[in-house]
Amino acid sequence: MNKFKNLITLILLTFIFAFTAKADSWSLPQEKTICSENNKFCFKVIPKKLGSQLDYFKDKVDGKENAGADKKAKENYCKGIFYVRDEKGNLREQWKTKLVNEVSPVNVLVSNQGDYVVTFDNWHGVGYGDDVVVIYDASKGSLIRSFGLSEFLTDSDIESLPTSTSSIWWGGNHWIDKEKGQLVLQVTKGKKSFENNADYFEIGVELSTGKILDEKRDRLPSLQFLIEPIEANQEQDVSQPSKDDCVVGIEVRRIVSSEFLAKAISKEKPVYGAAAKAVRATGKLVAEILVAENGDVNCARIISGHPLLRNSILEAVKKWKFEKSEGKYIGRIAFDAKSVLVSPEGKIIE
């Protein structure tokens, strides 16, 4: 829930910026009618009427019910109307229902037999929520199942999908296999559906029950982040102490990086934080470490490197253990923060 609220807050800020810049973005959802391939059955989507895009996102951030709703509109919720084409070619309404989507689905599939309607994603954020895929029994307009990405994709695969400020661009051209009675979901292997040479893997769903037929397992290479200690270069070794140096006013022995790193007996691994992952922070950082006589870290500070990586490295090096000595000693160690692409089998992809 907090993750979703953070997403909406980010969308709100982005929208305010776009509005200020007079950018044409976040168009309000419109009524649309989608028909089966044989054109015998059609489904009209009537979105919830919003006062404005900004009203919706503000209300979401504030946790208000019926976010952004146009207060003048009656029965203001997302609706679906199912039609059958008669012998004269006219559409006859069969049923009307309130849809699971709060505002409006993005895409719709209607089966050629007129037995199923499937909606995909949400106007305010493709790939988010527990109504990314919704299956309806088109014979009577009843809900069969609604589910989100986590029902059929692993956390690792979801993190590997292409994203934008508001959306996870997970899908391709989903389709219905009438012979097997299955919905076939196309999941991108890395590119958005509108990009060239996009490729997909498929997940089967039993339409009559909504049961996911394929095992949930890692299928995509995952981007993993590593922070490894390395020797600082000579220039970083000999740079002068600053006012916040660990040893200002203290006589202490300084050791060059190559010898200092060798004195480390145990090294706690830094944790790559969520914020650093979000911006894919990488690069070199340099830590200065003062070691007490018993080998414990007496003081540590980061003298250069990405700000989102500094705290995690500091927290780790404070737990390091070094060789004991008759007096305190100090040195500098560099850390290499990098991203690597790892296959589902655990192999690093060059």
| Total tally of structural domains | 2
How many extended strands?
Answer: 19
Order of helices and strands: HEEHEEEEEEHEEEEHEHEHEEHEEE
Could you tell me the radius of gyration in angstroms? 28 Å
Please give the share of residues in helix.
Answer: 10-25%
What does the main sheet amount to? 6 strands, mixed
Principal-axes shape call = elongated
Give me the oligomer status. Answer: single chain
Distance between the termini: 37 Å
* Secondary structure tally, helices: 7
Mean pLDDT: 87
Which stretches are poorly predicted, pLDDT < 50 over at least 5 residues? 8-24
User: What class, by secondary structure content?
Assistant: alpha+beta
Tell me the β content: 25-35%
Give a concise summary.
This protein has seven helices and 19 strands.
Describe the structure.
This protein is of the alpha+beta class and 350 residues long. The protein folds into two domains: 2-206, no CATH class; 222-342, TolA/TonB C-terminal domain (2-Layer Sandwich), CATH 3.30.2420.10. Helices cover 18% and strands 32% of the residues. The chain contains seven helices and 19 strands. It has helices spanning 2-20, 53-62, 155-160, 234-238, 257-262, 274-279, 307-317; strands at 32-35, 41-46, 79-85, 91-98, 107-110, 116-120, 133-137, 142-147, 175-177, 182-188, 200-206, 222-231, 253-255, 264-266, 283-291, 297-304, 321-322, 329-342, 348-349. Helix 1 (2-20) packs antiparallel against helix 2. The radius of gyration is 28 Å and the shape is elongated. The two termini are 37 Å apart. Mean pLDDT is 87; it is low at 8-24.
